[in-house]
Amino acid sequence: MSKSERAYFILDVFTHEVLAGNPLAVVLDSDGLSDGEMQKIAREFNLSETVFVSPPKNPAHNAALRIFTPSCELPFAGHPTVGAAVLLGSQRFPDLERDMDSVMMLEEKIGLVRARVKLYANGAGGGAGDAVFDVPSLSKPFDIQLGSKDEIAAALGLHIKDIGFENHVPTVFAAGVPFVMVPIRDMEAIGRASPVLPSWNTAFGSHDHNDAYLYTRETVRHGSSFHTRMFAPTMGIVEDPATGSAAAAFAGCICRFDQPGKGTHSFVIEQGFEMGRASIINLEFEVADGRLSAERIGGKAVIVASGVLYI
């Protein structure tokens, strides 16, 4: 392969089925691409995120990743980490005769990310594999001035009575990237939500990451803990089918309002159902001394397509 040819893959992430979950582009052999070229390629794919893989700075690690939306670079994101980890594992062990567990050390802008990958022999298990990664930056409150509940409802095309349930109120948390956490009273209300751009900045702030993560306890699937939606219209993503970085930030929100006790807590988060892209994200975190001490995000990924970029 010449230097002008770069292999790429398309995966569906947080699903074991093709044409579900969150699609992801992963470009291998990204050495030599400028920041501007990476941004243009991400815009060309026009998916919520595109990952560019290059050799790691530390030879003991597996790869360096850079993550771009159609409009900007991110320091960290969940479904690119899961998808890239599964793909790199499948590239490393292409002809498995039995299922295999491996560990990937991935260099991202936020820092080193450790991912545990399970690869399936001959495509067994319904996909290329599963990955679980340790969240590199624990969720914490983020200082963004929000609009009133009325203004938040208006920006989502909802009524003020749709915002909030139990003791949950809108807050902002970040695990690398900030998200406005918006509790929605039920499934009917969250299904009606839609971004209203003229009202967006008033409700969620005028900055690069004024993304809204809506959640409710009512779910489609019996085994799910929360039903969610994520809108990021100012980043060129009207709605995202699955957002691992938002799920990581959501851990802080759960801790604040639900106050889980000491120990390990697991949650299944469903997203993308309104888009016809059903996604399942596994969130696990540990609590010690009343605060988060560790977080993990996991899910499945399946390879959908591959090709070559002539750039």
Automatic annotation (TrEMBL):
It comes from the Bacteria. The active site is at E49. GO terms for cellular component: cytoplasm. Pfam families: PhzC-PhzF. One of its GO terms (molecular function) is isomerase activity. Belongs to the PhzF family. This is Phenazine biosynthesis protein PhzF. It comes from Cohaesibacter celericrescens. The lineage of its organism: Bacteria, Pseudomonadati, Pseudomonadota, Alphaproteobacteria, Hyphomicrobiales.
